[in-house]
From TrEMBL:
Protein name: Uncharacterized protein
The organism's place on the tree of life at top rank: Bacteria
Organism (species): Micavibrio aeruginosavorus EPB
Length: 110
């Protein structure tokens, strides 16, 4: 779980870096940064499913916070979910090749 949490931190720092106005990142770079976060959250959901209860609960809280923060930033930047999904669909998770976890998909659909 520690490795996944570190990957999440890196993905969030990357998003912060590309959204910095000084970076002048292209829309494509921003979308790819959000796609990377989605990939990490997908792997994190797999790890949460097999983690001990307290570890899983804490990790789920962290994942939820990261998701809602990213979703808010995506909306602020005018980035559509479909743009992010287009970059994510190439990713194959270790648990069967889902694009993103079902739980993550339900959050977008809510």
């Amino acid at each position: 779980m520690t490795v996944v949490m570190q990957a999440l931190e890196r993905a969030e720092r990357h998003i912060d870096a590309v959204l910095d106005p000084k970076a002048k990142a292209s829309r494509d770079v921003k979308v790819k940064a959000f796609a990377e976060l989605v990939r990490v959250l997908d792997v994190m959901q797999d790890a949460i499913a097999t983690a001990p209860f307290l570890t899983a609960r804490t990790a789920q809280d962290v994942a939820d916070a990261a998701f809602y923060r990213a979703f808010g930033l995506m909306n602020k930047e005018g980035i559509d979910e479909d743009e992010v999904r287009a970059h994510v669909h190439h990713f194959t998770s270790s648990t069967g090749g889902r694009m993103i976890s079902p739980d993550f998909s339900r959050r977008f659909d809510a």
